[in-house]
Design brief:
Elements (H helix, E strand, L loop, with lengths): L3 E6 L4 E8 L3 E9 L1 H4 L7 H23 L8 E7 L3 H18 L3 E5 H11 L8 E6 L4 E8 L2 E7 L5 H11 L6 H9 L24 H11 L8 H7 L4 H30 L3 E5 L6 H13 L3 E3 L3 H4 L4 H12 L14
Parallel strand pairs: 1-4, 4-5, 6-9, 9-10
Antiparallel strand pairs: 1-2, 2-3, 6-7, 7-8
Helix pairs in contact: 2-3, 4-12, 5-6, 5-7, 5-9, 6-9, 7-9, 9-10
The protein binds 5'-O-[(R)-(carboxyoxy)(hydroxy)phosphoryl]adenosine and zinc ion (ZN).
The site of 5'-O-[(R)-(carboxyoxy)(hydroxy)phosphoryl]adenosine has 20 residues, from helix 5 and helix 6.
Amino acid sequence: MGLRILGIESSCDETAAAVVEDGSRILSSVVDSQVELHAPFRGVVPEIASRSHLESILPVIERALAEARVDLGDLAAVAVTVRPGLIGSLLVGLSAAKALAFVQRLPLLAVHHIEAHIHACAMSNDALAHPFVSLVVSGGHTSLYLSESPTRHALLGATVDDAAGESFDKVASILGLGYPGGPAVEEAARTGDPKGVPLPRPSLPDAPFDFSFSGLKTAALYCVRPPAKRGTPAAAARAGSPSPRLVADLAASFQSAVVDVLVEKTIAAARAKGVRSIAIGGGVACNGALRGRMEAAAAESGLRAFFPPKSLCLDNAAMVAGLGHPLLAEGKIAPLDVDASPR
Ligand code: KG4
Ligand code: ZN
């Protein structure tokens, strides 16, 4: 029997548990999504999230163990996301993990959610070797790292305002598309012209590896509803909904602008750091345009871009259990009074 780690993830709006053997063999990965609970609010409501985690956490852990055909006594450790995330949500998963570790006398492994997103890429791509540049793009994060080992990541840059996924969600809302916005914008973009609406590519010359997406979102908003004083004809135009043509073209143009910026900065970071590989993780890594353009641009620069399968891009606990393996190997065991942190 290999070394089996139970992973628990509850940092945002997914209650997840998984059992992973020897760091990469996924025996089970259960994700209980709260998307429908938050959809009416077009974003995650922290109070609803933590209450729902509380209801789901034990059934989700039980299902993960049952699907893996693993008893608590077969586990080598419990890995749990402790940061960053919604504090009330994190505490639910962490409390469950602490209780299991205490009762079963198992090592507790404290996992950083963003490092787990990077690890999702490493554990699913054998050819990805350190060091590499990592791009984590999700609803809460957009960051570039130099990843020297599974547990050592140097921050190169991050968004100064919205996360890439957050901007997808906001533009979807502006266009009257569904929630979560990323898949809805990608779908709408299929029939649109990526050059149909001119949008900026915010570059931040003084901080070449930082990102800014809020201007792009505002530019998209002004295409649909021009800024105007109340009572003017332009203000009246704000009330109407955009034509299907404009929705498709704006979705395609917005997606193209975000992808351009992500690809350009990531390739530049890889070249500046002299690495040969790029790892991408997080929910936005599901995006087909990002996957295609990043792979093509990497190949043009003599680099290789790696993506996890889509099931490991979105929040899940397999990536948490997976990262538990090197943490355990390095003896990085967390005390039972370890705290959760939103940052
Ligand atoms: O990693 P994740 O599940 O949660 C966070 O840690 O934030 O990422 C969710 C984010 C959402 O903002 C969602 O709109 C975005 O990932 N997303 C996408 C796609 N699928 C999910 N963005 C662009 N294209 C997609 N296909
Ligand atoms: Zn995430």
